[in-house]
Specification:
This protein has one domain: 23S rRNA-intervening sequence (de novo design (two linked rop proteins), Up-down Bundle). The chain is 85% helix and 0% strand. The longest helix is centred in the C-terminal third of the chain and has 37 residues. The chain starts with a helix and ends with a helix.
């Protein structure tokens, strides 16, 4: 997947979470969870934009790790939403699938870049 498509998907994640949280009941619990998931989900796209401006491979990896953390946190809050019955599982299925795909792609990207960086360092040492 290219950078433009990944930017689009991470932005769409944030927008989907915004739409999802509009369905929450007006309770203290819902407000707290809404605040947390909005912060993490919107941070995925915002931090990926920073990745696109990475100054080096190491900078890319460090910034992608932040994207990974935020996406994983979003997955956590989706589990909380489901298990606390704030929304029905059916309403969350697609969003959970997308978050898990994004996490997997981020992890794979970090791994690929790390392998390349390690090979580059090894060739410079020999």
């Amino acid at each position: 997947m290219n950078q433009i498509e990944f930017k689009r998907r991470t932005k769409q994640l944030g927008l989907a979470v915004i739409r999802m949280t509009e369905k929450f009941p007006e309770t203290r619990l819902a407000w707290v969870v809404k605040d947390q998931i909005l912060r993490s989900a919107l941070s995925v796209g915002a931090n990926y934009r920073a990745v696109c401006r990475a100054k080096s491979d190491k900078d890319f990896i460090n910034k992608m790790r932040i994207v990974e953390e935020e996406a994983d946190e979003t997955a956590y809050w989706l589990e909380i939403i489901e298990e606390s019955d704030l929304l029905k599982s059916d309403d969350l299925r697609e969003l959970k699938r997308e978050v898990n795909e994004l996490v997997a792609m981020v992890v794979a990207s970090i791994r690929t870049k790390s392998i390349g960086l390690n090979k580059e360092q090894q060739s410079q040492n020999h």
